[in-house]
Design goal:
This protein has 32 helices and 25 strands. It is of the alpha/beta class. Bound molecules: ligand 26W.
């Protein structure tokens, strides 16, 4: 382990080497690269040893395949996991440098949209920290999720060219590049033994070059790998000059388009769009990953491929990588010579599928013609899978004959990827108990009856190392002082805090820590928005992608309601509140963008009205990303988790804020249900319709939004303010929101849940006034948050799905 002096020495050396300057004259960026180099060096040997140990032990390995890894910044978390954070901080302080400034030099790796991508990043951290042989496989997009700027209240998107400067964590492995084939035709020959042989012709070739990023476990010397694939030109394009003019031009076109495959991340969250380039990205990821897996399997194990599933498990993150099903079949049959039945057996025992949404607009369906054209051989295999599956239904499940069109993998000239993933895998899991129940009881009911053992729940989690230990050091230290540091290795030990529930000194300490974090946030808000907020007000936080089902609009309605109340009665007694929003809208999502605009226009009215006297402040922080979340979450008092019940599969921001001592105001949706069950009804603010009530309204068609509009004066006043241009000017108005709600009968039940939300928020207001009472509830939340460590989640995946145990290392250094 490096001493402070040794660290300081190395740092000076590195800066000198790289920049030719003394450390005093070095820029923060130079120091950032120097520290990263030290950490990278530190991980290097362990990385090698970890790989070797996994190969020597010959145990089962897991590949977590995902189109998104929202890893954010890595310097501080790597320092922390390698046990170097304190040493580094001390060395930097001695040199008169601030660690925060150094960390800020790192460009966030925004290779994900939201929850699904961040979950993948938390899982990597937990797999390494718990010593599981689990690796990530994804795409090295040259452009991550767009950068959001707000101009006159409108979102504009800027490209996120995150690789502009050297990314110090990646290692290019050109010698492990693979070739991926697209398009062309498939020739069929009958072999001497009567079996069929399929060979592709005239395909376009793309080189998949891996870039490896180390994933350090916490205090255990384990270093796993996140492999990100980049699409490049094949080294020599031998058939560039084709045999015809049209082939020649086709090849030129193809060469121009190759790098687009890993060009950018699609910014649509929960909204499926059948773009050919996205299909190519998905196949590119899946084919490269599976080719590598099969290659490694053959190299490492002395076993026939028929037994591959004994050593390999592939977890697919939503259906985005579900072409893994036909691709594994293709590789096993066409390249490795297995027959259909053996290949199918391996495939169905290798692949496991996680579902993250029941929103119908998010379900992936690819047009048959597109798949045929881009992936002709995959299509043949999908067709065969479908034929066999439907025949099986017809003959073995006569009771389901009527349902075949709803179950078939191919229906209405579309390939239904969720159905393909269910049929081709051995496990289908939801991400919170309620979500899994909904899958079993309604969305995937028939499949559940067909394959009862396949469905299971794995409630999401978050890495408590990043989301508590790293981002909220003061709280982490306070906890360790009280109950010892064991919670860091075993987060369920946080429950030990419960013995402080009536300890006033401790509750005051918690209050002080929160106040300090809020003061820091106040400065950040001032710097970024120019608005000053009161650090003693309630920090009421809703940070997540903007979507109608997440109901940021309901939150804005609450703001407008309070504003109206103050206008009617300027002397009213109200606990000061700072409403903090951060959210990106998908670039083509009109309603979401209107809501962002509304937040800004309400803010410009409320924040400047003299009658308000600073009691309400409305803040929108632009460009929500992992780093911004890291500064907001420790400062949150109130966590808004107010989705229409049944719509949020799990949520993970809810867990992050709970762990940092915020209380939740939320519906009985996603993992809120489990938070409620743990902390009890007195320690959470639950409101609104339940998912079954919502379902009933939908089934019966018995909800009438206009009735509420007419009956509730407060609702009508707010709606009319949107319609009448109270928040805006002549050009800016919010009529579309008004008409959208009333003409579609308020599809997300905003008006219906309004009353209960307002009453519940009054309860929040009065509870916050009694500091001990509030901190008591905060403490209970922190104490029970251990369940939501992704360590618990990963242990469950390992035990119930992957069938792997933590690896014990025999090498002395490990
Ligand atoms: C095809 C377009 C598309 C892109 C992304 C469709 C769907 C998605 C994801 C399913 C969106 C997502 O991130 N879902 C979130 O996953 C989290 C992790 O499980 C959950 O906590 C959230 O509730 C869920 O919305």
């Amino acid at each position: 382990m490096l001493t402070i002096e040794a660290f300081e020495h190395k740092l000076k050396e590195k800066v000198k080497q790289a920049r030719g300057v003394d450390i005093a004259g070095a820029a923060d960026k130079d120091i950032y690269y120097a520290v990263a180099a030290i950490v990278q060096e530190n991980m290097h040997e362990n990385w090698h040893e970890t790989k070797k140990a996994y190969e020597d032990q010959q145990e089962r390995q897991v590949y977590y395949v995902s189109m998104e890894f929202l890893i954010g910044r890595l310097l501080e978390s790597n320092l922390l996991n390698c046990g170097l954070r304190d040493v580094c901080h001390e060395a930097l302080h001695r040199l008169g440098r601030s660690p925060e400034d150094i960390y800020a030099e790192e460009h966030d790796a925004g290779l994900g949209n939201g929850g699904l991508g961040r979950l993948a990043a938390c899982f990597l951290d937990s797999m390494a920290s718990l010593q599981y042989a689990g690796h990530g496989s994804g795409i090295r997009y040259r452009y991550g999720l767009f950068e959001q700027r707000i101009i006159h209240g409108n979102q504009v998107e800027l490209p996120d060219y995150w690789l502009k400067e050297t990314y110090p964590w990646e290692t290019r492995k050109a010698d492990e590049a693979l070739t991926i084939h697209f398009g062309g035709e498939v020739d069929m020959h009958t072999r001497a033994d009567g079996t069929l042989e399929f060979s592709p012709r005239n395909t376009d070739e793309v080189r998949a070059v891996p870039y490896d990023v180390p994933v350090a476990g916490y205090d255990n010397n384990v270093v796993n790998t996140l492999r990100l694939w980049s699409a490049e030109l094949p080294p020599e394009d031998s058939h560039l000059l084709g045999d015809s003019e049209s082939r020649y031009y086709h090849h030129l076109d193809h060469m121009h388009s190759i790098e687009q495959i890993s060009g950018f991340l699609y910014p649509d969250d929960s909204n499926y769009e059948g773009k050919e380039l996205r299909l190519k990205q998905q196949y590119f990821l899946v084919s490269a990953t599976l080719q590598q897996i099969i290659g490694d399997f053959k190299r490492v194990h002395d076993l026939p491929l028929k037994q591959m599933h004994q050593k390999i498990c592939v977890q697919i993150n939503d259906t985005h990588p579900s072409l893994a099903v036909p691709e594994l079949m293709r590789l096993l049959m066409d390249q490795e010579g297995l027959n259909w039945d053996d290949a199918w057996h391996v495939t169905r025992h290798t692949i496991a599928y996680t579902n993250h949404t029941t929103l119908s607009e998010a379900l992936e369906k690819w047009p048959v013609d597109m798949i045929k054209h881009v992936l002709p051989r995959s299509f043949m295999i999908i067709n065969e899978i479908n034929e066999r599956f439907c025949q099986g239904l017809w003959f073995d499940h006569p009771e389901l004959r009527d349902k075949i069109p709803e179950l078939a993998v191919i229906a209405d000239d579309q390939v239904h990827m969720a159905r393909l993933a269910i049929v081709g895998s051995f496990s289908v899991n939801g991400v919170a108990q309620l979500h899994t129940d909904i899958l079993k009881k309604s969305e995937m009911k028939d499949f559940h009856e067909l394959y009862p053992g396949k469905f299971n729940n794995k409630t999401n989690g978050i890495t408590h190392r990043r989301w508590l230990l790293q981002v909220n050091t003061e709280l982490a230290d306070t906890i360790s002082d009280a109950i010892g540091p064991q919670w860091i290795q075993q987060p369920s030990k946080l429950a030990g805090l419960l013995r402080y529930t009536n300890d006033n000194a401790f509750l005051q300490k918690l209050d002080q820590v929160k106040r300090n974090n809020k003061a820091k946030m106040t400065d950040i808000i001032q710097k970024q928005t120019g608005i000053s907020v009161d650090p003693d007000s309630i920090f009421d936080v809703q940070i997540k992608r903007l979507h109608e089902y997440k109901r940021q609009l309901l939150n804005v309605f609450h703001v407008i309601y309070l504003y109206n109340e103050i206008k009617d009665n300027p002397a009213m007694d109200i606990t000061p509140r700072t409403f903090i929003f951060a959210a990106k809208a998908a670039p083509g999502y009109y309603m979401a963008k209107e809501i962002i605009k509304l937040i800004h226009h309400v803010a410009s009215v409320v924040n400047h009205d003299k009658d308000v006297k600073g009691r309400l402040k409305l803040i929108f922080m632009e460009n929500y990303n992992v780093s911004l979340a890291e500064s907001i979450i420790p400062a949150a008092d109130l966590s808004e988790q107010i989705s229409t019940a049944g719509k949020e599969a799990s949520g993970t921001g809810n867990m992050k804020m709970m762990m940092n001592g915020a209380l939740t105001v939320g519906t009985m949706d996603g993992a809120n249900v489990e938070i409620h069950d743990l902390v009890g009804r007195d320690n959470i603010f639950i409101f609104g319709l339940s998912s079954s009530e919502i379902q009933q309204y939908r089934d019966e068609g018995s909800y009438n939004a206009k009735e509420i509009y007419h009956a509730d004066d407060r609702v009508r006043r707010i709606m009319d303010q949107l319609n009448g241009g109270d928040f805006g000017s002549q050009e800016i108005e919010f009529k579309d929101i008004f008409y959208h709600i009333l003409s579609h009968n308020d599809p997300y039940f905003v008006l219906k849940d309004f009353e209960d939300y307002i009453v519940t928020q009054e309860h929040v207001d009065s509870t916050f006034r009694i500091r001990e009472k509030w901190q008591q509830k905060a403490l209970v939340n922190i104490a029970y948050s251990g369940k939501f460590s992704s360590d618990r989640t990963i242990h469950e995946y390992a035990a119930d799905i992957w069938n792997i145990a933590p690896v014990r290392f025999s090498t002395p250094s490990l």
